[in-house]
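Q: I have two molecules that I believe assemble together. Could you output C-alpha cells for the complex as a whole instead of separate predictions?
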Amino acid sequence: MAPSAVSAAQLGLAEELADAAGAVIRPYFRQKIAVDDKADASPVTIADREAEQAMRALIEARFPADGIFGEEFGSVRADSEWVWVLDPIDGTKSFISGIPLFGTLIALLHRGRPVLGIIDQPISHERWRGVAGRQSTHNGEPIRARPCPDLAAASLFATAPDMFRGADADAFARLKSRVKLTRHGGDCYAYGLVASGFIDCVVEASLKPYDYCAMVAIIEGAGGVFTDWQGQPLGLGSDGRVLAAGDRRVHAAALTLLAG
Amino acid sequence: MAPSAVSAAQLGLAEELADAAGAVIRPYFRQKIAVDDKADASPVTIADREAEQAMRALIEARFPADGIFGEEFGSVRADSEWVWVLDPIDGTKSFISGIPLFGTLIALLHRGRPVLGIIDQPISHERWRGVAGRQSTHNGEPIRARPCPDLAAASLFATAPDMFRGADADAFARLKSRVKLTRHGGDCYAYGLVASGFIDCVVEASLKPYDYCAMVAIIEGAGGVFTDWQGQPLGLGSDGRVLAAGDRRVHAAALTLLAG
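A: Yes, here they are, computed for all two components at once.
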C-alpha cells in the first residue's frame, strides 16, 4: 500500500467539509448569539452545532459507510474502516470572544490511524492541510516546520495554563522553565504555525481526539513530530496529552522533561 | 473648551501614523527575520524599529513642537502640551510567532491626559479609534461595550499569567476565581474587543505607558471604564496595573477583588 491510502474523492470531501463549516460559522462571528454551557462547563453555540450538522450531512450523503465522531453529536459506525473526526469550532472560547484563532478541525482515520487533516480558519481564510506521505500545505502552498536546535531557543504554546492539572502542571512548569518564550491562547492555530515554521513547540493536556487528530498529518507532513507524552503515535485511544514540535531535537528534549 | 480638544489635523496624522506603521510591518509578518533580546529580555525586530521610525518622522515633519514617547526610541520634548505615545508593535511575541493579534498603538496626550487612541491590526486590517468625548469606532463603524451585570457572567483576559508577580498574582487569582471564563494571549486586541462588546474585562500588570495610553479614549468612548487598580485615571505616571471593563458594575466588582 502507498504511504497514503487517501483517495481524491476523500480529499475533495474534506475540503468541502471545511468550506461548509466556514459558510455556517462566518455569519455568526461577532454576532450576539446565545452561549450554552455543556456538561463539562465548556461553551457551545448554534454555530458549533450547525457547522457539525452540515459536515455530517455531507459525509452521510457521500460516504454512508464511513464512521463519524464529532464533538457535538457523538459517534456513529465507530468500527468502520474509515472514520471522520470533527470539531466544528476548536476554540469556542476564542470564537465567542471575537478572536479569529479558532478553527474547524477535520481528520480522516484509516483503521485508527489519522491519514488526513485540515485546520480551517474561516475568518482569516487560512487552511492548513496534511495528508499522510505528502507535504503539508497552507492555503495550497507547501510548508515546512523550522529547525530549532534546543529548548533554550524554542517558543512554547499551550492554549490555557488550566489545562494542566496535578502532575501535568508540574511537568508543564518544568518545560516552561527551559524554553525561550511561552505563550497561551493559540487553540488549533498554534499547531498550524508549528507546521508553517513560526512556532517551535505546542504542549497540551486534557484534550479529546477531535482536538488533535486533524493535526497529525499536518505536522508530520511538514517535517515535524506529534505524539503523546510517551512519544507514542496519536489516535482515538490516546490519553489527551500531546506534544508537537517542528524539530525532533526539541521534541526529544521536551519528552524527557515532561517525563520528570 | 469642548470635551475633545483634538483637531482634524491631529486626527488625520494619527490615521497616517497607523497607515505608515502597517505598511512597514506587513511585509515582515511571517518572514524569517532576526529577533533581538532587549535589556528586559523582551523581543524586538527590525519591524518594531522601522515602524516607530516611520511614525516619529511623520510627527517631526508635521508637529515639530509635540513630544514623542516611543517604546523603541524613547522620549523627546516630554514637557510639551501634546505628546504622542507610540508602541509600533504591541505583542511582539505574537508577531514573531505568526499570530495576527499584535497591533500598533498610537496615543495623543494633552497635558498628560490621553485624548486620542488608535489600535491598528495591520494583517486583519482592523482599526479601533477613540477620541475623548466622541463615540469610538472599529473600521469606521460606531461601537459600544456590552452590558454585563456581574463578574460571574464576565469573560476576563490577560495577555500572560506571568505578568502578575507577588501580590499581583494573588489579586489576579482572586479575580479569576470569580469570573465565568479566563483567557490569555490577547495583547492589545483584547482591549479592542472590550470596546466592541465581545469581551467583558481585561486586567493586566507590569505595563508601560505605551502599552495602555492608546486604549483609554477607545474604551471610554465605547461606554466602558479603564483605570488603574485603584480606580484612578491612567496617564504617564500610572504604575502599570490596569483594569478595563465594558460595564461599570464589572469594573467596580473587579476593583474590590483586586484590592484584596
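A: One point stands out. The longest strand of chain B covers residues 82-90.
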